[in-house]
Fold these 2 entries.
Entry 1:
Amino acid sequence: MASDHVFKVLFLVQSAAFTLFIIHYSQMTTVVLKPVGKLNDEKHCHCKPTGTREVFNTSAYVHQNGELLMPIRGQLSNCTLADIKKRPGVVMLTTANLAFVDIALNMLESVKRIGVCVNTTVIAEDQKAYDLLLKYAKGDPAIYVQKTNSGEMDEIEPSRRLGSHYYGIMNKRQAYILTLLEQGLEVLFSDSDTFWFRDPFPYFQGDFDISIRSFSKTRIISKTHFCSGFIYLKPTNATIQFVRTWVELLDNNKKKGKFPTDQSVMNGLLTADKPVHVNITILDEDLFPWGSTFFDPSWQKQNHSTVVMHAANIPGHPAKLSKFKEFGMWLVNVTTSSNR
Ligand SMILES: *[C@@H]1O[C@H](CO)[C@@H](O)[C@H](O)[C@H]1NC(C)=O
Ligand SMILES: *[C@@H]1O[C@H](CO)[C@@H](O)[C@H](O)[C@H]1NC(C)=O
Ligand SMILES: *[C@@H]1O[C@H](CO)[C@@H](O)[C@H](O)[C@H]1NC(C)=O
Ligand SMILES: *[C@@H]1O[C@H](CO)[C@@H](O)[C@H](O)[C@H]1NC(C)=O
Ligand SMILES: *[C@@H]1O[C@H](CO)[C@@H](O)[C@H](O)[C@H]1NC(C)=O
Ligand SMILES: *[C@@H]1O[C@H](CO)[C@@H](O)[C@H](O)[C@H]1NC(C)=O
Ligand SMILES: *[C@@H]1O[C@H](CO)[C@@H](O)[C@H](O)[C@H]1NC(C)=O
């Protein structure tokens, strides 16, 4: 109870702008009083109240410069603001509609368990997904839940056969990525159906614009295709021009009532080396396997030091869920899909 309250106070302190906090520090009460409880002997004694107030002295937790001495760890991330600041200029982005909130929470739990802290944005594609994600992410300094800014999508998992809706969701990711790149941030876009075993960030070092998984081992960019569901982008001029064109092409198609996959449009640009040449680094397929490879019993018997598994080619929510459960990779106690 007491710690609960302190938490709330600290959260308030932290979520308020720090500048404001510093300006008003002297006026700000450092002692927080709970309402007086029911007085012990109200009816008989009209003298002074004997009811006690629980007193929480926030100055025991907050330094003069506004730094928290007992920093808040997010419930979803187990990270503090200071942890996030240790990885400046990097944002992890994922998206989920209501049907995939559980899958997204499972991914975040896998990230939490390996102790990776990164400034994370989760884009909720509908109001219910937003409300639910917000409930879990509340007060978490590492996880920012944002509601889609480009039209809500269905809450249920759209069938791939109903092209437009399914690809409608997938095609909005690029606009989010572009916004972040334009702020000079490096972006890791991760589909929600990934499971993290180890910290992937050391694999995103070096001289490249985009780091991504390919469908084949060949290093000749024009001869292979890439998967857009787990992609690391640096905010270089080349990347920004590339993603801008990617977004434009998707928008133009949409206006014509066409919904090619974001991935096919991306691959078309890469194959044609347009609008500019981007330097690609290909992620190791043994370290970043896809579902069909990873869940293969013969692959499981081998020693692969998997970094991130992406259940990309395990189609549909029910199949993903059952694979995660079968392999002991279902870490959360929530199911949101109504589409079984
Ligand atoms: C609150 O805590 C600070 C630092 O521990 C202490 O100096 C101050 O006297 C305390 N105030 C009250 C009202 O207990
Ligand atoms: C949260 O992080 C702290 C500090 O790294 C660690 O000691 C603790 O075990 C973690 N808790 C969970 C639930 O992961
Ligand atoms: C986290 O990322 C957002 C962009 O999504 C940015 O505005 C914010 O400043 C970042 N926070 C930190 C602590 O780096
Ligand atoms: C991309 O590769 C070219 C040729 O190898 C090189 O000149 C250029 O500096 C690279 N750009 C980046 C952003 O790494
Ligand atoms: C990147 O683009 C900006 C603005 O378009 C330009 O001023 C700058 O010279 C470019 N940098 C490189 C390395 O091409
Ligand atoms: C796989 O790893 C385990 C534990 O690290 C080791 O005991 C075993 O010999 C390895 N097997 C192969 C085939 O490398
Ligand atoms: C999941 O939550 C329900 C309700 O809070 C609880 O009864 C159940 O024991 C939980 N299961 C696990 C595996 O944590």
Entry 2:
Amino acid sequence: MDIPYILNVLGEDEYTDVNPVAPPIYQTSNFFFRTVEEFRNAITSEKEYWIYSRGNNPTVNLLCRKIAALEHADEALAFGSGMAAISAAILSNVATGDHIICVRNPYSWTDTLLNRNLLPRFGINVSMVDGTHSENIQNAITPKTRLIYLESPNSWTFELQDLAEIAKIAKAAGIVTAIDNSYSTPLYQNPIDLGIDLVVHTASKYLGGHSDTVAGICCGSSELIDKIFKNEFLTLGGIIAPQNAWLLLRGLRTLPVRMERISNSAEKVLDFLLGHEKIEKVFYPNHPSHPQHELARKQMKRGSGLITFQTKTTDIQKIEAFCNSLKYWKMAVSWGGYESLIIPSCTFVRPGLYSEIPSNFIRISIGLEDPEFLTQDLERGFELL
Ligand SMILES: *Cc1c(COP(=O)(O)O)cnc(C)c1O
């Protein structure tokens, strides 16, 4: 299926006979039946019938079909946040006594789920490994390993994992693989084609694309998605509202143009940053300066809009002055909307608190503005560094 077909044709004529050009929002909690027989029949399968919107809703369903098609997956489920999707994907594959391998420095709340607030309470063991070398993953496998959780690239330093190689290792050992593919979007990387089992996304970033929705996606084979649907999805109930699913459907239609603009602008901003006298180091996966650039070329189509740089100065006051002076860049968490954003690591790295990230790192998210304005703004600010 080609992308334009997926984005504005697939599934769009199914639930209506009035031919709307934009898909309808089915803002309903439940669906009625005309006969007891119909009702009795439907209740045997939450997934196949319209019964209750914690299970199935036409607007949400349309979104899922499109994202599954974009990720080359059998099926997808949409959740109320990226973390709800990630939690469901992980919980679905483990029980007490099991072991998970996760790549180091994943998204911060994924780390919290695995190592602090939740899984430790249920006796699930986690090994955090450097995934830049696949043999580290191979060596961490135990007879209890049930899940290998990847994030390629991860945020901040954009470390990659060789997805095809790790999928092969996992398959040989009968272990499920899952990846957070939020950075690349389904347009730039399709892990299922490389043998990965489950793909999760925060849809709050590029998929939604307008900084107005928090949502998540999990896709994979019918077998794995069915298991998540019956257990974590229906029982934990972390669903997305129809209105928010519709915002994502609208966001998806412009995903290809937004990503092209963002990646082109990112390359311009990257050129400006590389070799700048105030900058020590720049991190971007799809550039020859990245240590895994070859792997990035092999498994990703392009880099998206996140860039991290390390300033030469370690003086936090100067870094603060630089950030405070910016006119176009907004200081905020998250990324993927119209607005270019900036987040200095000194907001969360504190003296005396160990962090893998030094306090003079700054991560920027390139938005849709003219990149000339963005680099001029940075240049003005760099005078304060
Ligand atoms: C934001 C983010 C998440 C979490 O998604 P939410 O929608 O905020 O719950 C997960 N992974 C990555 C890489 C993220 O950037």
